[in-house]
Amino acid sequence: MNTIIRYVLLSIACSFILAVSMVLLTFITFSIDDALGWKVLWQGKIGDVSFLLTVFAFSITFGSIIGAIIGWYWKGILKQIEKMLIGIIQGDRHPEMEEVPKELDAISNRMNQLQEKLRAQTEHAQRIATERANEREQSLQDVVVQERNRLARELHDSVSQQLFAASMLMSAINEAGPPEDPALNKQLTMVEKMIHQSQLEMRALLLHLRPVALKGKSLQEGVEGLLHELTQKVPLEIDAKVEEFKIDKGVEDQLFRIFQESISNTLRHAKATKLQVLLIERDENIILRVADDGVGFQAEAVKTSSYGMQNMRERAYEVGGILKIISLPNEGTRLEVKVPILRKEDTSND
Q1: Computed from CA positions of residues 312, 316, 318, 322, in that sequence, does the dihedral angle turn out positive or negative?
Q2: For residue 128, what are the β-bridge partners?
């Protein structure tokens, strides 16, 4: 039954009982004969309506009004309690009642205590889940690092050495004297180029496998170390400008991984002879730019299909940056990452 209807019926019943009680009390107090008294009350009129009917009608009307007011008031209170309970169930931060009558102070306090207890339990569960996830991620990362290093060592000690030996052997054959058969000479030259390209692919793969993180170094140290390794192993003319600045380790790690991925793509696909690297801070932004003079590509054609590009773009988004790639066939490729620096406010004097 509706709350308002329930209180209306209850108030009508109480008013009716009160009216009857007052009439009976009047009979008893003034020793009125029952038959005569009822006749007098019935014949008595207020206007054109019997006095007795008027009393009962007034009691019913008064009870209805009072019941409706009380029912409406308590319906609002119950709605507030229901709203607060729904808020607690849904995890709202502060689902408090608008107006709490004194009779419900204890209930309100208990609900607030329940809310705080549930919030504390939720925070505790989330903290445990986060710690477990971090532990699993760290354990998995350690396994991945170890496996990548193992694969890099094995590839370097076996395939890379064999490719180097094959390259030296082919160079010696071609330099000893080209064969008289032009077709055979062309095939030998093609084989030498394929071996050379395979060496570049292998170096790019090793570069992609080994430096998975900065390992305690700054971003500048990691970039300079990677470029120094390139100058020793790859025939590239490298022009680099690296400035000193301080950023968070998380941003450093993501930028280094983007730089590593771009260098790997250059070695594997660009066939470049020159490489330009720029790492600077300008207008509260970190700018990382890698440009080569390689074969280039149609950027729109591989924008959605290249996992490497998508990976670099997602890494840039994770630190609030943007990544732009400009490339044209036979005109080289330029990659640029711009990440804003969020300066921490100095609160030492507060």
Answers
A1: negative
A2: none
